[in-house]
Each structure stands twice: as structure tokens, then as C-alpha cells.
Fold:
Amino acid sequence: MTTNKITELLNIKYPIIQGGMVWVSGAKLAAAVSNAGGLGLIGAGSMKPPLLKEHIMKAQTLTSKPFGINVPLLYEGSLDQINCALDLGVTIFFTSAGSPSKVTKMLKDKGATVIHVTSSPALALKCQDAGVDAVVAEGFEAGGHNGRDELTTMVLIPQVREKISIPLIAAGGFSTGRSIHAALILGADAVQMGTRFLMTKESSAHDNFKQYALKATFQSTKLLMKKTVPVRLLENIFSKEIEEIEASFIKDELKEKIISHLGKSRAKHGMLEGNIEQGELEIGQIISHIKSIPSVEEVMQEIILDFNQSLARSFIKF
Amino acid sequence: MTTNKITELLNIKYPIIQGGMVWVSGAKLAAAVSNAGGLGLIGAGSMKPPLLKEHIMKAQTLTSKPFGINVPLLYEGSLDQINCALDLGVTIFFTSAGSPSKVTKMLKDKGATVIHVTSSPALALKCQDAGVDAVVAEGFEAGGHNGRDELTTMVLIPQVREKISIPLIAAGGFSTGRSIHAALILGADAVQMGTRFLMTKESSAHDNFKQYALKATFQSTKLLMKKTVPVRLLENIFSKEIEEIEASFIKDELKEKIISHLGKSRAKHGMLEGNIEQGELEIGQIISHIKSIPSVEEVMQEIILDFNQSLARSFIKF
Structure:
């Protein structure tokens, strides 16, 4: 019987992290996940410090359990977000989209727990060297912004496990208890799930987006904008326009056309405001396996039941 | 304790299939895998009937265990290949790259076992409806020719499992015993591995190719030629030229340039003849996790040991 390094590190009941999602994971979702025994993360990427402060303070009233924030380091102002959270007593930081050496030492010196998101075994090792407490390794199937290496979760997790000795959180393609069991078999200590928690009552994804995502088939997501910033999107008019641009232009002209067509606030329009035709709808491949919008508590109980049932199954020894 | 439907269906010891690979899996590799307790497959895709006949007859002298052939149905002459194998007493057919309804009834009427390769839950259901005995579901991480849907093994397998009631073989990303354990947890009854068996003494991949593949990093494969026939290749001068063409042309002109640059016999030059600069080197993402070229028997024993050790590990129930 192995102990669980992630539940111990984060002082949570279940080895389940709710991925930070711009426009989707505010105080309400993060607190619900933490109250249900996982770790909730406020997705700070879409929040300026005053709004982030509001969400952190609200989450503190909604739960007495640990929660954290996710900070994409590539945005201007990420340091302001971090300082805002530190001032309010947040002690768990998931950093992504940038160098792990940028803020890890500063955060560790202040006593915080730091976990960095990676998409390759080599970067995972750099994270460990930078002094993080754990790593999230995220496969090609994950939603939203995605690494360039396109390693899938099945290929990525065992190789990251062999590179690092610190705890490992698997991400990309998870929505069930048995898939969490598979992740542990592959060497992870926990999983991070975004899409499964996006599809809950408590997420701040617009109901138009949730209802539209319920109809997704196995052909409904694509990794697009590889020549700018790769992102996995739910198919809609906007995503088809992007595909058409990608099929029609080359090199610098392609980049310009993509950036210009993307414009500003596409993700907000789509995910928060519910413009399902022209908005940018970030979502993972596993959406085709999700056919309900329950409460976070219901999701968590179903997953834990499925996990325990999976543990109880036995297979022929060969 | 569940029984294993695939070992029973195919009358083999271990739930491990060696994927049929053009230019790589002839009589020697297929017989070695069958002798080691798995199911070997002769990759008929690259063989005209006289050569296929030679390989089948040679395999029959090298093993008394069951083996099969893999037939991509898109090639002209696939029916000649099938008839050649039937005449020689082959009873196990893995069909791919074409409609499962094309040959399944004819083969079943002759008493053969038919297994079709798919890359989506919807096609898996069509396979079951067409009367196949089992399905191989192959994820985005797999080597060589690949589906257009880009579903990864982690996302694909549980959804195929829910669509069909017949036995299921998972493919794409497997090379270790613990990954086979994970596949069973996700709902598969067995795995098919190509790249792991390509990297053995008995495969007919040229030694130049094997030695070059040993140096692969996690960035060394890419799914290319998506506008013609998607194929996962090991990076070399040829693959970089293809990438440059893909970045430089659009639509019909792109297709023409790809087809013209590909020319004839690229795969043979690369994989069988060892031209590692200008040949087409088909390989799976998991190559970055493979650091040895052992015998098939050694591979199999190591995998089974790892599988049994994985079964014996226990995790905290939550």
C-alpha cells in the first residue's frame, strides 16, 4: 500500500486537482472542488489583480479547505497576480506557460508550494531543478493551450516519471475513476482535470457553452493555431474559420491572419459570455466522453466510486 | 479474476499482439513473437502474393503457434493477398485502412478470425456490425499510417469500450508491462505494439534505422502529410523536407508537392534498406521510451515481469 504524495503535499483528501481555466474556474468552482475533497484552482490568467482579489476572498468565505491559483507566466502582470495572492494568504501556486525558474525561488522563500505545468520530460526535469514541489505533465489531448511536442498522456507520463523523483500530476484525457487508476499505474501520483470540471454546475463557463459541449462527438475538438500558440478548441464557426485560414496562407502571412482574425477577447466571448458561434471555446478531447453537467460533489463521488471499483477489479496474472 | 477474451480468441499465452508493419514484420519477426507467447503478424502491405507466400510458408516452418497477417484494404491487390493466405491455411486476419464490411463476411464464411483496426468509437461500432471478432483501436501516438481524428489512446479506449461488446485491443503508445496493465484498466483486453517489436533483433527494419531510432528524443516523431495520408514519422532530412513543403504550399498545390516529393518506395528505402536521411521512417511516439534492441523473447519476458509487478502494486483506496 503506497501513500499518496500529492494528497500529503497539498493536504487534500483525493488525488484530484481541478485545472485552472481562464473564464471558467473562479471562486465558486475552486471552492466547490476543495470542499468536495480535491484541490480547486482559481484560473488567474483572465483576471487583473482587483478581480483576482475578489475571487480569492470569496473562495476563502466559501471553503476552509486548501485551494490554489493557476498563473500563466507569459502574461504581463503575472507577478502582480502572484503578489496579490501572496498578500491574501494563498500558499499554493500552479505556474504554467513560462520558465519554472522565473518565480519558483521567490515563492519557495515565502513558504509557498509551487507546482509547474509541463508537456515534456525534459522540461519536467528543469522544473525539478528549479526547486518546484511537484510537476503537472499534460498530454496532447488536453484542452486549451497546449505544448508543441504533442506527446500524448500515455507516452508522456511514464517518461516524466523516470526523469523526476518529485510528485507527478498527470493531465490530459482524464474524466473517470478508472482513468485515474490508469494514471497511477503509469507512474503519476494524482490527476488534473479541466474539461470534467468545466462541465459542472459550479463552473463559470456560460450555459450556452456547456450545452453546446454536451453535443460534442469524438470529432469535435482540434489542436489549432500551431503556428502561433497551439490551443485545443471545440469546433464552431470560429474554429472552422481558423482552419480555413490555416489551409489558405503560409508562414508570416498565416501568423498575421491568425492573430488578426483572433482579435481580442475571443475566449471571453465564447466561454464566459456564451457566443458559441464566434467565440473561442477551449476544451479537451475527453469532452466526447462527458454527457452530463452535474454538481462538483456529484462528479467527485462518481469518480471516487469508479476509482475504488477499478482498484477492486482483478486481472489474470500471466 | 476475469478471463482474457483475446488470449482465448486467438489461442495465445499473453494478450500481446505484434502490429503488422510494412517492410519490418516478415516471417522472422512474426514467428518469434508467436513463439514467445504473443501473436505475430506478417505485414502483408508491402508484399505481392509470391513474396507473401514465401513469408507465410517460412513462418509455418519457424513456429507451430498461431500467427496472422495484416492486410491494409486500401492497396490494390489486397484481395489477392487474402486469397494467397487463405490457400496456405492462415486463419487470422487483421484488416485495416478500408471498410470492415469489404471482406469480413467472406473471411468469416471461410472460418477465419477477423480483427479490424480503427481510430474512432464510431468506426469500432461499424466493425462490430460488420461481424468482426475483435477490434484494434489505435490512438494518435501510434506510428505509421494514422487516423484523421487524432484521438489519443487515453481518450479513445474507454469510449470504444462503451460502444462495443466484442473484444478490444488497444494500440498506440505501449511498450511496457505497466502500460498494458493501464490498457486493461481502461477497458482493453489486450494491446498491439509495433514500435517495441520493430526495435528487436528479429525485425527486418534495417540496422541503420534501428540504430538511428535508438537516439530518438521526445521531439523526434511528428504526424505529417495530414493533407494526403497522415503518417507518423521519425524526424530526418526527408521528414523535414515534408514539413517545409507543408509550411510553404496550400491546398491542391500542397497535395501535389507532397505526392511528388514522396515519390515511390520511400518507406522501403528508409525502413528496409536503411537510408536514414532520405527514407520514410514510420515509427510511434513511444520510440523515445525505447533504449535497447533485444530479442523478441527478452522483450516479452521483460514486459510480462513488469506487468505482473504492476498487478502486485496496490494503491490507497479513497
Remarks:
- The mean pLDDT of chain A is 97.
- The CA atoms of residues 5 and 295 of chain A lie 27 Å apart.
